[in-house]
Amino acid sequence: MPEELLTLDAALSDEAVLSTYRRMFAALARDSGAVVDDPALVDIAETLFAAFAEAGEEWLTHEQMRAVCRAYPSEQFENRLRVLRSLGAIREVFPKPNQLRYRASFTSVVGLMFIRRMMDDGGQSEMHRLLALEDLNVADPRTTMEEARQSAANLTRAFRLWALELITLTTGTIEELREQAPKLWGTEEIAQRAQGLHGTILTRWPALDRVCTELRAAIYSYSDASRRAAGRLADSAGTTRNLTLLPTETWRTFAQTASRSALAGVLDGFVFDAPAPWHDPAAIARAVDEAPRPAPAQPTPPRSALPDPGPSSDLADPPGNERLITLAETLLGSSPKVALADVIGADWPSVRRLLADLTTIDLRPELPYRLVWTDTLSVRPEGEPTWLSHGFLEREAS
Question: What is the pTM of this model?
Answer without folding.
Answer: 0.43
